[in-house]
Amino acid sequence: PAAAPPALDVRGVTVRFAGLLALDDVSFTVAPGTVHAVIGPNGAGKSTCFNVLSGLYRPAAGSVRLGAAELTRLAPHRIAALGVARTFQNIVTTQGTVADNLMLGRHALSHAGFAASALRLPRAVREQRAHLAKAREIAELTGLGAHFDSPVALLSYGDRKRVELARALCLEPRVLLLDEPVAGMNAAERVRMTEVVREIRAELGLSVVLVEHDMGLVMRLADEVTVLDFGRAIAHGTPDRVRRDPEVLRAYLGT
Ligand code: ADP
Ligand code: MG
């Protein structure tokens, strides 16, 4: 709805690396509860954009806002605490059980603190139980319910990628940043991941920003697409609209 405040507002973001304009005055808005894809050829600035949104890079100009909150120069953990969680493309957990990994994700939200938990104070015990219940709920939602107590090292690649997603969801984010969520997956794993992302959007009502090379996934999943080319946003719109845009075709086909 037009009256709703934007979940995430990216305005005029510029990032330079030693004279190279990695992002040049990039703006886009992610509406609440939608999936927004950022696509573009190699070197277009997609990862740089993600790193700005999650606070790893500070832009030379421009701003990123979540509702009324200014995220632009906050440290990554502060941005996470304000409700922006991210997954990493190449980091897949191999330690501990699924439950352990999800509880690590919950740890950032813990109020009781480690000392209180270690002393098993009543409040800490209650909090720990609530965290475990929430972790179990998120495992169910991401199709990991049956593997909750399994060592992550024994899971398939597709399941492990969903552990990474579930860990990010344990922060109960308002915005979820997915960095190439289906990279390295086979066809069946891709379909599964697509279903899970659809489901979490529907169930949790959060906004998703995803960087993705797989056009099929972008077309099936995204409500809105921003196309980057040489650091500039050259097109915005629905997947159907941007796939017909002459400038987008030129950027992709190099004609
Ligand atoms: P994409 O993710 O779309 O492939 P990137 O955001 O990784 O593109 O890169 C955009 C441009 O910025 C590229 O020309 C890349 O070489 C350059 N770049 C990215 N990160 C750095 C960095 N840390 N230092 C210098 N140049 C970088
Ligand atoms: Mg990249």
Automatic annotation (TrEMBL):
Keyword Transport in record: yes
Family matches, as InterPro entries: AAA+_ATPase, ABC_AA/LPS_Transport, ABC_transporter-like_ATP-bd, ABC_transporter-like_CS, BCA_ABC_TP_C, P-loop_NTPase
Keywords of this entry: ATP-binding, Nucleotide-binding, Transport
SMART domains, sorted: AAA (SM00382)
Keyword Oxidoreductase attached: no
One of the Pfam families matching this protein, by short name: ABC_tran
Location of the ABC transporter domain: 8-255
Domain of life: Bacteria
An annotated Gene Ontology molecular function: ATP binding
Record-linked CDD domains: ABC_Mj1267_LivG_branched
Membrane-crossing segments per the record: none
Database matches in PANTHER family: ABC TRANSPORTER ATP-BINDING PROTEIN, CONSERVED COMPONENT OF ABC TRANSPORTER FOR NATURAL AMINO ACIDS-RELATED
Protein name as it appears in the record: ABC transporter ATP-binding protein
Organism encoding this protein: Streptomyces violaceorubidus
